Amino acid sequence: xALACNIVTIVVPVFNRSNIVVETLDSIACQTALPSLIxxxxxxxxxxxSVITEWAQENRKKNFPIKILxxxxxxxxxxxxxxxxxxxxxxxxxxxxxxxxxxxxxQNLVCNIENNPxxxxxxxxxxxTSLSGKKYIKHFPRKRHMWHNIFxxxxxxxxxxxxxxxxxxxxxxxxxxxxWDDYELGMRLLLCKPSIMYIKSKPAIEVRCQENSITGTxxxxxxxxxxxxxxxxxTIFQQASMPRYARYINLKRAVLxxxxxxxxxxxxxxxxxxxSLSNECSGWKKLxxxxxxxxxxxxxxxxxxxxxxxx
Length: 311
Prior knowledge:
The protein contains 12 helices and 11 strands. By secondary structure, the protein is an alpha/beta fold. The strands form 2 sheets. The chain has a 7-stranded mixed β-sheet, with helices on both faces. Helix 1 (about 20-30) runs parallel beside helix 2 (about 50-60), helix 7 runs parallel beside helix 8 (about 225-240) and helix 9 (about 245-260) runs parallel beside helix 11 (about 285-295). The relative contact order is 0.11.
């Protein structure tokens, strides 16, 4: 196997993570096949920069090159694009500063890259630890990737790596989005029709939910984050002449409106649901959106499995 540092670069954006980022970075330094690593401090206001600088000095070595960059423009997308601009390996993996990878992950990835030279996007399952401490597996599907990304967000940052050229081809991260930016990037990556490969081994990444993450603990606290991403995705599909996928995004919008209602935000719920209905001309499909909204608001889950085929 070729040196991993010549094949894949991990880009880690960091903002005010001085208390936990070392654990994430240690999990990368403990890989059985060491990648290249780029850490991008996103204008932290704590001592994150000094922490990652000291860590890099202690861990940098010949087969484990480490770059530390600074991105003053706030936002994870800005930081990730800054890191992407410095990648000089054929593959890139973006990783969050509060997650953990098991020691075998990069070696598994590089082996699969070498065994599948035609692939330009490789996905895998991850273990998610919720805020309550409950663990579950989030699966990366083997087919219908666009459908699954629209409704299940399978193109989250921790679930795949792609060729650097593919990230560049789709335009990188959208700096105008402050939430669900990985969701929107996933749509553009999949529209490039990549050759996708799935790693079958046990999950080697643990995604740890944090109260101070971009997503946070509720949707009602920052509605513009999610809605701007959905609006962008709908525009992408409309411009690509994919009206069904655009309607799927509108269904997702109705579900988000129902989540607002569940969280007690009646005003934003009514506003967003009205906008969802205004995007649909068919009376029958408006009824489906109403059904999806009411079903979800009452605690139902997975409405897309029932409604999407009719949309």
